[in-house]
Amino acid sequence: MERIIVAVAGGLAALGGTVFLIKLLILRLGGVRTAAEVVAVKEPKQGYYVHTLRFEHNGKTVEQDDKTGYSQPFSKGERLEIVCSRSSPEIFEYTSALNKNLIISGVLIAMAVLIVIRFVFFVV
Questions:
Q1: Separation CA 94–CA 31 (nearest Å)
Q2: How many other C-beta atoms are found inside a 10 Å radius of the C-beta of residue 112?
Q3: C-alpha distances in angstroms, 63 versus 42, 55, 113?
Q4: How far apart are CA 24 and CA 44, in angstroms?
Q5: What sign does the dihedral 63-66-72-74 (CA atoms) show?
Q6: How many whole angstroms from its chain centre is CA 33?
Q7: How far apart are CA 62 and CA 88, in angstroms?
Q8: pLDDT digits (tens, 9 = 90+) for 77-102
């Protein structure tokens, strides 16, 4: 019974990782790369920084807060590359964070699949 529970948990982790990976790939492949300038840095909680970015989207200047929340602030005036959704300027990711998240989700999926295989086929 325990092996079935662990196999199902591994399957759910693989499914969640796959959904996350697909969302990231859609943004990466269908999004628009653009340069964004940090115009403000806020610290809503101690050690948690939110940045307001200014960038061009479909010919309009947009100011939008990031939703990531960093432990180290970017400098005001710093220029960073982001990938922005073609249809919605609220949906964007820093290019470096997007690349890391793609790798992390791929590793998560691989580990979850290995757990499923191990507990379905190799545990008696």
A1: 12
A2: 20
A3: 14, 7, 40
A4: 27
A5: negative
A6: 15
A7: 11
A8: 999 999 999 998 889 999 999 999 99
Q: Spell out the residues 6+ positions from residue 105 whose beta carbon is closer than 8 angstroms to its own.
A: 17, 20, 21, 24
User: Can you tell me whether residue 76 is helix, strand or coil?
Assistant: coil
Q: 69 — alpha (psi -120 to 50), left (phi > 0) or beta?
A: left
This prediction has a pTM of 0.81
Residue 104 token pair: 């992390």
**pLDDT tens by residue, 66-83:** 987 788 889 999 999 999
pLDDT tens across 15-63, in order? 999 999 999 999 999 999 999 999 999 988 888 899 999 999 988 999 9
